[in-house]
């Protein structure tokens, strides 16, 4: 029988230079969208294959999983209004210009961020979109369309802001929606796009933005909706000391007490940043299984602080990695994020406690656990065939000995090949179906036009 697509039925990725998987020195066999078997060094697959791919130049790792981003911010990278500021002044500067976002610009920003992520070896892209100015009511629809067209796995969270300055929040009136409009649209996008099944290419989560940008009612009702639709909950929490001070002043409670009061101490929830927690809060978050997405680049750029990754993991919280929005990390490169995670955690915990394998594990299995997924994040039989393949053919790797350590320590940042659900999406370092030069030109033109200062 002829295959309807170019994808062979059983493909053996043979004899990789190195691979991040147990007992897989001889590579792995992909069948359909999944990994059918791993092959021991020197062995052959248990059953015949239709095609082989010689991976002897490649270091093979599970596709990286990004658990926090704001794609639209690619349009306001390194913006003079916001650079060299901590979170609150940074946000106030950008709130002033973000209402200019248009659907066309948002579509290109989304395409660009997915492409950047994919090229960095990321196969599941999470985004937290919380900006719905007039005309951009269908932002989630745009993100789903773009993910489908690129073939990247997506976890799009329907973000929201409903507490404006006049009600004691931080965002301006122009950027908030009312709770009912948000909840109605959340339900709409869950019905349209959310697939809770294993192997899902698109999932929707609910993501009220932060304690200083939404009402408690919205937090509570979002948690109820998440139960009904079996989806994840996501928000920013514990990012800065300013946020702690805001919560104490506005609610008379610290952020974790706030989270508990609104019913979010649940395995469904994962938090962006999760930095300023005390020992008791770490214990409570861990016991509840609340996940934390560590965003090292953004935390260093905004000088927000150092996430207590090791204590959180020890307490029981899944810990994953995120690049965070491109106005604070200025890049959407998750492989660079792995390196940043290694470096900042070395500073926190010392040179022996956190290894390159820990940093890779956060970006793969850890991130998958934050998203509540056990079908991605590892190279093992039965898992989805989401893979990133890097060569060590650049000058920066010359002289490196341990190939997996070299990826992290020498600064790998562009995959040679990326496979999502058994299909190649990047070949020879180029994304299939995207002209990167044209995309960059159109995206940067709109960024200048909408947000330029000249
Ligand atoms: Zn963020």
3D architecture notes:
- Residues 59-422 form the Amidohydrolase-related domain.
- With 454 residues, the chain is of the alpha/beta class.
- The chain has helices at residues 87-95, 103-119, 139-150, 179-193, 216-229, 241-251, 255-261, 279-288, 296-301, 309-315, 334-349, 356-370, 403-409, 436-451; strands at 10-14, 18-19, 27-31, 34-39, 51-54, 58-62, 64-66, 122-129, 153-160, 202-208, 233-237, 269-273, 291-294, 319-321, 387-391, 417-420, 423-427, 430-431.
- It has 14 helices and 18 strands.
- The strands form 4 sheets. The chain has a 6-stranded mixed sheet with strand order 2-6-15-16-17-18, with helices on one face. Strands 4-3-1-5 form a 4-stranded mixed sheet, with no helix packed on it.
- The relative contact order is 0.16.
- Bound molecules: zinc ion.
- Zinc ion binds next to loops.
Bound molecules: zinc ion
Strand-residue fraction?
15-25%
**Could you say which overall geometry the principal axes of the C-alpha atoms support?**
globular
Alpha carbon gap, first and last residue: 61 Å
Radius of gyration over C-alpha positions, nearest whole angstrom = 21 Å
The count of strands amounts to 18
- The class by helix and strand makeup works out as alpha/beta
| Strand neighbour order, sheet with most strands | 2-6-15-16-17-18
Number of helices: 14
Show unreliable segments.
Answer: 1-5
Helix content: 25-40%
Give the biggest sheet: 6 strands, mixed
Mean pLDDT: 96
Pfam families: Amidohydro_1
Domain Amidohydrolase-related: 59-422
Protein name: 8-oxoguanine deaminase
InterPro entries: Amidohydro-rel, Metal-dep_hydrolase_composite, Metal_Hydrolase, MTA/SAH_deaminase
């Amino acid at each position: 029988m002829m295959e309807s697509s170019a994808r062979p039925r059983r493909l053996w990725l043979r004899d990789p230079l190195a691979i991040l998987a147990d007992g897989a020195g001889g590579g792995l066999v992909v069948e359909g969208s999944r990994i059918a078997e791993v092959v021991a060094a020197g062995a052959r697959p248990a059953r015949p294959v239709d095609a082989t791919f010689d991976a002897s130049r490649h270091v093979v790792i599970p596709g990286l999983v990004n658990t926090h981003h704001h794609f639209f911010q690619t349009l306001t990278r390194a913006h003079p209004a916001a650079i060299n500021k901590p979170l609150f002044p940074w946000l106030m500067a950008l709130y002033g210009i973000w209402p200019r976002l248009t659907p066309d610009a948002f579509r290109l920003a989304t395409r660009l961020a997915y492409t950047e992520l994919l090229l960095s070896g990321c196969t599941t892209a999470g985004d937290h979109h919380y900006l719905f100015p007039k005309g951009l009511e269908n932002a989630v629809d745009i993100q789903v369309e773009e993910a489908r067209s690129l073939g990247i796995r997506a976890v799009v969270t329907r973000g929201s802001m409903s507490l404006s300055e006049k009600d004691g929040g931080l965002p301006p009136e122009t950027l908030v929606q009312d709770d009912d409009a948000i909840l109605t649209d959340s339900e709409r996008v869950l019905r349209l796009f959310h697939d809770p099944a294993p192997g899902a290419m698109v999932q929707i989560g609910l993501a009220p933005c932060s304690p200083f940008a939404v009402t408690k009612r919205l937090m509570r009702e979002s948690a109820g909706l998440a139960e009904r639709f079996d989806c994840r909950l996501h928000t920013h929490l514990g990012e800065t000391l300013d946020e702690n001070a805001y919560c104490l002043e506005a609610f008379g409670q610290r952020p974790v007490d706030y989270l508990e009061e609104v019913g979010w101490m649940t395995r469904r929830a994962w938090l962006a940043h999760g930095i300023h927690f005390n020992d008791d809060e770490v214990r409570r978050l861990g016991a509840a299984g609340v996940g934390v997405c560590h965003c090292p680049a953004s935390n260093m750029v905004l000088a927000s602080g150092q996430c207590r990754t090791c204590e959180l993991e020890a307490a029981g919280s899944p810990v994953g990695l995120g690049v965070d929005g491109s106005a604070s990390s200025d890049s959407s490169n998750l492989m660079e994020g792995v390196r940043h995670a290694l470096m900042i955690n070395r500073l926190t915990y010392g040179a022996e406690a956190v290894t390159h394998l820990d940093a890779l594990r956060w970006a793969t299995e850890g991130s998958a656990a934050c998203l509540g997924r056990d079908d991605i994040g590892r190279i093992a039989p039965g898992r989805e065939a989401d893979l990133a393949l890097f060569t060590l053919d650049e000058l920066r790797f010359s002289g490196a000995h341990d190939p997996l350590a070299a990826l992290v320590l020498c600064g790998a940042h562009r995959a040679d090949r990326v496979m999502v659900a058994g299909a190649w999406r990047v070949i020879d370092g180029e994304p299939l179906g995207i002209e990167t030069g044209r995309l960059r030109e159109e995206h940067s033109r709109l960024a200048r036009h909408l947000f330029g200062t000249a």
